[in-house]
Specification:
alpha/beta, 4-stranded parallel sheet, 16 strands
């Protein structure tokens, strides 16, 4: 219950990004260093979310570690009631009001556009846009260019 109150305060109150990050860590969110989280970010089942280093979550992002359809035929037919880990690797940017569903892995240096619904794993360096999210292109990979 204490963690829930801290996450609510971190989400809703205006404060510097480093303070907000500290409060999210204190509440039990697993995240690396230099993570920037804007206001009104929603975590469901926060224990199923792991965030890497230098990740940016813009305003009103939803990371849904759990979804349920509450006694619907969809729940039985499509296994909609599920709890799975979300893994966000290093140097990822997730835009305003984007939603990440359970069981998704977002590869390093990926960019998720505003209002995007991420329904599938995102490879490293990908740029994903739309509902449902589709790969629009890839960032340049300077590591591949060196090799």
């Amino acid at each position: 219950m204490f963690g829930h109150i801290i996450r609510y305060a971190a989400s809703m109150l205006p404060m510097p990004f480093p303070v907000r990050g500290f409060l999210y860590k204190l509440s039990g969110i697993r995240m690396g260093s230099k993570v920037t989280i804007d206001r009104d970010v929603q975590f469901t089942m926060h224990k199923h979310v792991k965030i890497g280093d230098r990740v940016t979550l813009a305003k009103s992002v939803s990371l849904l570690g759990n979804i349920t359809t509450v006694h619907s035929h969809l729940e039985q037919k499509y296994s909609m009631n599920r709890t799975r880990d979300i893994v966000i690797e290093d140097d990822v940017y997730i835009g305003v009001k984007a939603t990440v569903l359970p069981g998704i892995k977002i590869g390093r240096m990926a960019t998720i556009g505003a209002n995007t619904l991420v329904t599938r794993n995102v490879p490293p360096y990908a740029i994903v846009l739309g509902v449902p999210g589709r790969i629009y292109g890839f960032r340049e990979n300077s590591e591949q260019e060196k090799g």
